Amino acid sequence: MASTPIAINLGKLDPRDLVGRRSEIELCWTRLTTGSSLLVTGERRIGKSSIAQHLSFGPRPGWIVIYIDVEAIETIDQLIRAIVTAANLQEELPRKVRNGLSALLEKIGKVTILGTGIELRERAAQQAYEVLDQLIARISNSHNLLLILDELPILAKTLAQNSPEDALLLLRTLRSLRANHPNHRQLLCGSIGLHHLLANSSEINAAVNDLYTIPIRPLQHSDAIELAQRLLAGIGRDVALDDPLLEAIVNATDGIAFYEHHLVASLQLSDVVTLDSVENARKVGVGSQDDPWKTVHYVKRIDEYFGPEADLANAILDSVAKAGPAGVSVDGVLNDLQMSLNRAVDRQAVLAIIHRLRLDHYVDFDDSVTPNVLRFCFRVVRDSWIARRGR
Amino acid sequence: MSTVVARRVMPVFTPSAVSGEHLESITVGREPELTAIANAFKSASTSLNRPNLLLVGPRGSGKSHLISLTMHRMSLDPQMSSRLAIVWLPEDVYTITTYTDLLRTMIRSLGGVFFPNSTDAGLEDTLRVTAGDRVIVLVSENFDRTLNLIGPAGQRSLRAFQHNSGAFMMLASMPAIDEKLLDYDMPFYGAFQIMHLEDLAVEQGRSLLIKTAQGNDDVELVAFLESPTGLARLRAIEHLSGGSPRLWLIISGLMTVELLDDLVPLFLKMLDELTPYYKARMDELAPAKAKVLAVLCRLGREPDDSRPMSVKDIAAECAMSQQTVSKQLHELENARFVRKVKNDKDKRASYYEPREPLLKHCLELKSNKGEPLSLLVSFLSIWFSISELMDRAIELPDRASGLPTIRVAFTRRIDNLSSAALLSEASGTPNFAALFCLYLARSTATPEAQASELSTGLALDEMSTVWLILFAALDYQPFRQRADQLMKILGSSEERWWIAGSFAHFTYEHLVNGDPTTEHLRPGEVDSKSPILRDYLQPTPSLVAKDFFLSGVPVEAKFKYRKYIEALRVGLSGAMALTFPVDNE
Lengths: 391, 585
Description:
The complex is a heterodimer of chains A (391) and B (585). Chain A has 18 helices and seven strands. By secondary structure, chain A is an alpha/beta fold. Chain A has a five-stranded parallel sheet with strand order 2-3-4-1-5, sandwiched between helices. In chain A, β6 (363-366) and β7 (373-376) form a beta hairpin. The radius of gyration of chain A is 23 Å and the shape is globular. Helices cover 60% and strands 7% of the residues of chain B. In chain B, the strands form three sheets. Chain B has a five-stranded parallel sheet, with helices on both faces. Chain B has a three-stranded antiparallel sheet with strand order 6-8-7. In chain B, β3, α7 and β4 form a beta-alpha-beta unit. In chain B, α23 (432-442) packs across α25 (460-472). The radius of gyration of chain B is 30 Å and the shape is globular. Chain B starts with 19 loop residues before the first helix and ends in a 6-residue tail after the last helix. At the A-B interface, α2, β2, α3, α12 and α14 of A face α2, α7 and β5 of B.
């Protein structure tokens, strides 16, 4: 039976075209309905926004979902305006409530962060809290309100550039709202940047530690196969579910939808689609100068993330990359490091770096073998690492 | 004599000013990209998908052409037209410097109005209301420029607007991917399906020119373009100019049979048109980059030397560190000025060459008054037709001075061609076997790889010929060893040897004696009383050559092996000596 085609799309996805993610979405709703607010984490382009948008596209009965991509927002008053505007567009809300929200918009102009004094900023945060507090209170009379703030780490980072306290004030304000409104939940989406933002500040961590964290991984294998099949159908190539092409595409992309779209996009421009063309597309994707799969940052960001310990992190990843799919034990890594760095290395320091690399989804332990071995989490990242580092 | 035809003027720098029908008529080799764009439009018009497409290619690669054609095709689809609201920003838009400007331009483009003091959020609302139920398609050429102008904050706003509203998709283009705009920390990281527009191959360029000539009812030109000589001329053009679609279009506006048959004036005309453009591009570069590029173009050096250069050599020439040169080359590569090429003899080093050969020639024209270029074109126009090359070599009044130059160029040409390309040029000429012999003698591939390559491109008789000539250049014992090895691969039969021997010998005859009446031997064309057959091929009841030489008449024959090989050795070295005298190396 022919599969339903899906168009290649690296922009905003039609939630109806979302393949898989049923368990993640179900988990989100389960946690939300049982009282938790959520922190959805994962690499950029892993699928966080698609899940979040799906929640807003098909909310459960009795829920109002406001989805806002906050990447472009630079101040708290802009954020509040965006939230109130989005709430005002919710047709499920009674007209009376929506009229009341319109009145809130007039207050927003007064909520600005003036000067640099902490008192002024706190006062502004207080005003922001009051506006949102009223908004939530009005909606909560008739509905549960889920507020989804996508790319929150970028907003926090933007605010922190002005003053580190601003980011903290925002996160504390959001936490207060969660705490004070039983019918209100939040879903905050953040890529790896949020993890680094939080790790650097226990205060910031305290402002979000009530959130239930849902890490987003690649698609389940069967879903990844289905996506590959439907993407191929979208470019006019119908294949059966057991066609080796599908397995090859999933294998080449680790079942990450973003890479699957990219790979099929390049197949779309070929005359024929074969296993060889899939392999060629993979090689170009992970290794070419133009960085079509956007993997260069896996190599480049190590310097930024690890600072003075970047050499050690690079050497560890070189060692794990060299080991290939078989993986390498920590002792094996230590041996490699002594040779590559030409100096003695401290085991604890290496373990600490490995821990951070695991948090960043570079590597993970496979405890199904003895001793535990370290492997790259994703073949795409490993292949890219080898291609870019020449290791 | 060619007839004068009325030419349709094609504005090669502004496809948007051309009618859709005409664009359609001169479009070649871009169907996969057009299909991908059409699919994206269809997806946006029938669902909540909002895909973003990015066409990447150097100036002249056909980005504007594709966009214009897409707009034309969409206008012919009433269903899609009614669902999409196109905002097509001008290619060089000077009125947009902020996100606010962008929103205002988009609203105006859709016929909407806004309050002068509207905030961005207000303008976004107005834009949505103006578009109504339609999905906005933001079409932006030189999108890198727009992104730069609206800055990171504007980019974040644009991306967030798309995600929050789902109001629009984007079709954009830029000459090269700008890392600063699309890297991990930037809003549009990974948000585009990127399609690189590659150069047109010679056959595609020829199709384009034929289509244009047909549009002008220039029957004579069409006939010439379809002839082997016409193809040879176009190969020369492609070699010198690269395969940029815009260059093919420029050629289409300039060419006549006479011009095309004599490449020099055609190129000078083309260079005249392009020199200001290339000069402007060079002027945009920082001095260090311009210097590296100029060195890579080998300005002021021997005109026919177009070999790629290593980083080390460029650094020495520029008096810069290798690290600095590498950085400059990396950025020049990203900007599509240069490209990295492989060098089988030195796999560890990075080699580069200018991406557009015409850049070199334009600069050369300015600095050397065009003389070396004329020489180069003159030679190349001959080299690309193998027969002409051989004839010219034979006819040269002063071989001592002329042949070495041809030989060097010829050798380089062979080095740069795949066997398939070489076959396509040389097949059917009396000299193709000698050419292949040279090619194979230079090849470092294993016998298995050579056999595989040849068997895909050569007919049985041609294949055998090539091998035999190659072996003939070897001493007897090595030849036998290699012959045994290869014949196993090729599934040898004695008929093949027989055929091959005849071919090779006639090639030798032709080359040594220079007899233009000697026909190249083909199956079914051999006189059974030929002295060649008498001397070298001995009829025998043990072998049957079937239809290969005598049409419909089976012939029993066997060649005199040792004598034949000897003849080949003598013949080949004779041919080589005539065409490529070793003492003039």
